[in-house]
Amino acid sequence: MDLGLTGKKALVCASSKGLGLGCAEALAEAGVDLVMNARGAEALEAAADDIRKRFGVSVMTVAADVTTAEGQAAVLAAAKGADILVTNAGGPPPGLWSDWDRDDFIKALDANMLAPIALMKAMLPDMIAKGWGRVVNITSVSVKAPIPQLGLSNSARAGLTGYVAGTARQVAEHGVTINNMQPGIHATDRAVALDGGAGKAEGISAAEARANREAGIPARRYGTRQEFGATCAFLCSQHAGFIVGQNILLDGGATNTTM
User: What would the mean pLDDT of 212-228 be, rounded to a whole number?
Assistant: First the structure.
């Protein structure tokens, strides 16, 4: 299927690895020129070079922390005129409800709510003026089904979801769509780390810990960054213009819900 994206330009945040990289790869395969961002320059440059070689698109890199005003300014300068924005940031640390104070919540909000909102506010006017644009926010399954130990993430990502719900319906008439992707467990470095930690705590191997978690997923496996990226690319495509303000759950059926 031709996604109709050849020659478009996208800013993809936190795209040196994991789900962000999957989105960058899928967009590049569809002919999109990229501005890739991550905090770590070495991994970012390696990922960008691989994408250039495989897909032949233009890739600019910006090593910066987009939770800061300086980082946001840097990526926005590089992404001037972009047609597509993919926001993404790692989740805040887990804990108990009694562990977190105001500063913890402010950090979570900065990373997982306020930074994506700032990027949208900066980029939406140009998209509206052109009459076409796509925004995809990578959030979490925890928005649909809160995870008790991830209270910081539950709160911040739910706030972003509420913002998108209203904003998406205000910009849709201009040919601009905003949607969210809610990942469950995918085979990323974070999943490997969590499996290792769970295995150590339970006195089993990381492979056994993974098998235990996969048994709780109806698909009986972890998702891949490639299939996640393909969904992102479709949401950015010419075929998805009537998908507005939606939350796309990608969890292999793990969240037991009717709607």
Answer: 97
Taking Cα atoms as reference points, which of 167, 4, 30, 19 lies closest to residue 87?
A: 19
Strand 176-183 relative to strand 59-63, pairing = unpaired
3-state helix, strand, coil in the chain (%, to 5): 50, 15, 35
d(CA 203, CA 172): 51
pTM above threshold 0.85 = yes
Reading across the β-sheet that carries 133-138, which strands appear in turn? 59-63, 33-38, 9-12, 84-87, 133-138, 176-183, 247-250
In whole angstroms, give the CA distance from residue 164 to residue 143.
Answer: 13
Provide the CB-side half-sphere exposure for 116 (13 A, CA). 32
pLDDT tens, position by position, 91-138: 888 888 999 999 999 999 999 999 999 999 999 999 999 999 999 999
